[in-house]
Amino acid sequence: MYLDLLETMDENYLGGRGHAQATLPELAGRQRATVLFVCCLGLFLVGLDTTVVIIALPSIGRDFGVGIDALQGTVGAYTLVMASLLMLAGSAADRVGRKRVFVAGLMVFSLGSLLCSAAPNVGLLVAFRVLQAVGGAMVNPVAMAIITTTFTDPRERAQAVGVRGAVFGVSMALGPIVGGALSSTFGWRSIFWINLPLGLVAVLLAVRLVPETRASAARRIDPVGQLLVFVLLTTLTYAIIQAPAQGWSAPVILAAFAAAGGALLGLLGYEPRRPQPLIDLRFFRSIPFASAIVTSVIAFAAFGGFLFLSTLYLQDARGLSPVQAGLAIVPMAGMVAVISPVSGRIVGRRGPRVPLVVAGLCGATACLMLTAIGPDTSLAWLLGAYVVFGVGVGFVNAPITNTAVSGMPRDQAGVASALATSSRNVGQTLGVALVGALVTSHLGQAGRGNVASATHTSWWLLTACGLGVLLLGATATTRRAEASARRTAAQLNPQALSA
């Protein structure tokens, strides 16, 4: 049933009629595989730096003499800025050329990495992480747009999207391992050095092997919408991070929440009036699309929170070195690598329901296992929880990505992909901010035992996130939901049905 829906939508809305998409000559199978490899290499770099810093946070904090709130900024600055700029970067790529923006993004990202490795204080480190995020925002949605235009067959596209999701998920899961090994051996600055040779290789391959494409009728830039999105995300995250230290009723915190609420109301009132909005709110009439966005936020809030809490617990409560902490997380990363391709195949054959239900069940179970951990909790128990959580992360990526882009007109598939990717970054940022705020509020005087007990409430919150994924997976993949996706696709491109 799911494949029939996907293929019908692709024939009506992605098949070449009535969409603003430049014609791309059909590439041979090996050429398509090469383009996929180059795009995945860029995505690997961006995904790796989403989490590679987390394992090094205690080392950075000791080096610069800063606390948890400043350390959260090194993570949040990257994910938040990237989430804010993804849709703008996608629109710019449609205008000036996707290959051009992709290559430029890799170069900016590499420059940001070089500057991060030389940052003399935490303030400049956060600033250089912002520069990295600008480059990452240029790479991420554009890589997805290149993949979408390269793989025109619906089944091949589903497989390519699955590979893309697997690579991105594995890169984020490998981040703590790579970060732990490098920071223990060469210091935390070395976690940024690895981006330089890989970034150079990706640039050279993209220049030589990726064909240039652009939309024949590019969407207009929406500066007001872009500004409202940025204000919404930054003020909301700032308020969550700073509230434990300044008080939830402090004037600056209340002002930040008010600004976030005003920006949200502004988006809801302004965007529907634009002929080409930054965010087409009609997307959310599709139950599968809306559920994919919400699921992405919840799932990656759990993922970001899980890594943040595990890093604090393993190093500050158990006294492990960064490399030992990274090795402890290997089972999770290994399961992500193994399960992600399996999830993609299941989505292609049976739809997203089973992977989402399994992902939610595993995520909730793993976090529930950690709600009472202490400094002396059995290592076998910890590793078991990490394995179960890795299975959940491996299952969640492919159904989110494929559900978000399936059925959208090709000239809006990039925007749909950018929204799905933005929701991942927003979720991870909020996850780190929320668990960091909870840990800060529960953390009394310093001590290893206090760090472990201070995480307990946060683990319960992440358990609830897993249950949320489970509930959405069970309720948003019904026949009624699929019917809403068909109606939404018809509303977005009615000319295709009448052609």
Report on the structure:
By secondary structure, this protein is an all-alpha fold. It has helices at 2-13, 29-51, 57-64, 68-96, 98-117, 122-150, 154-186, 195-209, 223-246, 251-270, 287-317, 322-328, 330-350, 353-368, 379-405, 410-442, 448-454, 456-475, 479-492, 494-498. Helix 2 (29-51) packs antiparallel against helix 6 (122-150) and helix 11 (287-317) packs antiparallel against helix 15 (379-405). The longest helix has 33 residues, at 154-186. The protein is globular, with a radius of gyration of 21 Å.
Helices and strands in order:
Elements: H1 2-13, H2 29-51, H3 57-64, H4 68-96, H5 98-117, H6 122-150, H7 154-186, H8 195-209, H9 223-246, H10 251-270, H11 287-317, H12 322-328, H13 330-350, H14 353-368, H15 379-405, H16 410-442, H17 448-454, H18 456-475, H19 479-492, H20 494-498
Helix pairs in contact: 1-19, 2-6, 2-7, 2-8, 4-5, 4-6, 4-9, 4-16, 5-6, 5-8, 6-7, 6-16, 7-12, 7-13, 7-15, 9-10, 9-16, 11-12, 11-15, 11-16, 11-17, 11-18, 13-15, 14-15, 14-18, 15-16, 16-17, 16-18
Question: How would you summarize what this structure contains?
Answer:
This protein has 499 residues and is mainly α.
> Architecture, CATH level 2?
Up-down Bundle
Integer average pLDDT: 80
Number of domains: 1
What is the share of helical residues? over 70%
Round the Cα radius of gyration to an integer and report it: 21 Å
Sketch the major β-sheet: none
Q: How would you describe the shape?
A: globular
The topology string of helices and strands comes to HHHHHHHHHHHHHHHHHHHH
Structural category is mainly alpha
Supply the CATH superfamily name: MFS general substrate transporter like domains
**Cα separation of the termini:** 25 Å
State the low-pLDDT regions, or none.
1-25
Task: Quote the beta fraction.
Answer: under 5%
Total number of β-strand segments?
0
